[in-house]
Amino acid sequence: MVVGLLGGAFDPPPLGHVALARAGKEHFGLDRLVVLVSARPGHKAVSTPADARLALARAAFPDEEVVLDETARTVDLLRDGRFDGAVFLVGADEFATFLDWKEPDEVLEHVRLGVGSRPGYPAERLEAVRAQLRRPERVELFDIGEWPIASTVLRSGEPLDEHVPPAVAELVEKMGLYDRRGSYTGSGTREEPEAT
C-alpha cells in the first residue's frame, strides 16, 4: 500500500492544498492519504485553535483520513517509524525552504518527498535545494497545474469563495472564524469536529 502524507496548519485550507493532494494521489498512485493538521506548528504562529483548523481540513478533504498532529516538527512525527516509506507531499514554495526544516536529511530517511510545482515556478530554485541533500533521489517533482492562492492571503479579509473549497467557506462563515484583517475572531461557535 502506498501512503501519502500532507501536513500543514490549514488556517484555512486553500484550493492549492486540495490540488496538491489530488495531483499527488494520481502521480504517485497513493492508496491512502493522511492529512496531518499541525496542532502547534513549529514553523509559524497560528491563532486559530487546532479544533477549528481540524474541522476546516475535514471539510476540505472529506474523503481522506484527517488527524491532529501533536508534534511541532515533521521529523519528530516520523521518528516512530509508522510512516516509513510514505510520500510526503509539499508544494514548491515549501520545498524551497526545506533546508530550514529540522533535520531535513533525516526526514528523507523516513519518507520520500513529492514536490508539487506549478507552471512558471523556477526549477533552478528547487534543484538548488535538492543538490544540497544527502539523498536527492528521495525528492520527486510533479506538476499540479496553476497553484491557487495561499492561506496567508486568504486571511487578509478577501472573500474566500473563490479560494477555498465551498464546504470550507461555508464552515468559516458558520463558525465566524476570521475578521476583515484576517485574524481569528474567537467569536465563532468553535464546534467540536466530528469523530472519524
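(ticket continues) Second input and output from the same batch:
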Amino acid sequence: MRKLVLLLVLIFAVFMLAACGGGQAEVVPEPADPEPQEVEGAATSEPAPAPTEPGEAEDAAPAGDNEPEAQPDFALLVGDYLIEMDQDVAYVLAALGEPLGEFEEPSCAFDGIDRVFAYSDIQIHTYPVGDSDHVHTVFFLSDLVRTTEGGIRLNSDLQAVLDVYGDDYEYDSGMYTFTRGLTTLEFLIRDGKVANIIYGFIIVE
C-alpha cells in the first residue's frame, strides 16, 4: 500500500508541477484596496453603537444589516487539526506526522521550491514564501476524508454537494468551483459522482 501511495504521489506531483501556472497556481493581481485580513489569534471587538439621538427610532436598523454575513474561508478538518489555506506547512506536518512521501521541484512562479507531501488520504501542495512553505492546495486521495462542511467525500452525489454549498459556483468541464475570499473548494464530477475534491488558495501579488 505504501509503495502504491508513493507511486501515485510521484505521478500526480509530476503532472501537477508540469502544469505550473495553470489552474490554482495562477497568480492574480492584488486589488487596489485589499480588505484587511484578520490575524489568527488576535482579539477582535465590535465598535460600540452610537448613542441614539432624541427622536430617533430605537429599532432602526443600520444600513447593511440585511446583507448576508461573510462565510469563513474554506479549510479542511483532518482529525482534530484544521488545515488552513496559505498556512505554514510546518505546523501541518507537525500535527499530521511524517508524510508517506515528499516530492519537490523548483517553482516556476516563485523564487524557491514547490513541494508535495503525501499522506494516505490527502496530498498537500505548497509554494515558497520566503524561507517557509505555505499550503497551496490539498487533494483528496480516498473516501475516508470528508469536507469540513457537510461531510462530502469522493463518490458522494452531485446533489449532496449542491445541498451543502449552494448554487454560487463556477462550472468548467465537470469542475464545480466554490470561492470564499482567497480560498476555493473544487469538486470534479463524473457520472453524477464526486471524482475529486480540491481545497485551494488564490495567490495574489
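Agent notes: Residues 1-19, 21-61 have pLDDT under 50 and may be disordered. Residues 2-18 form the longest helix (17 residues). Closing as not reproducible unless the customer responds.
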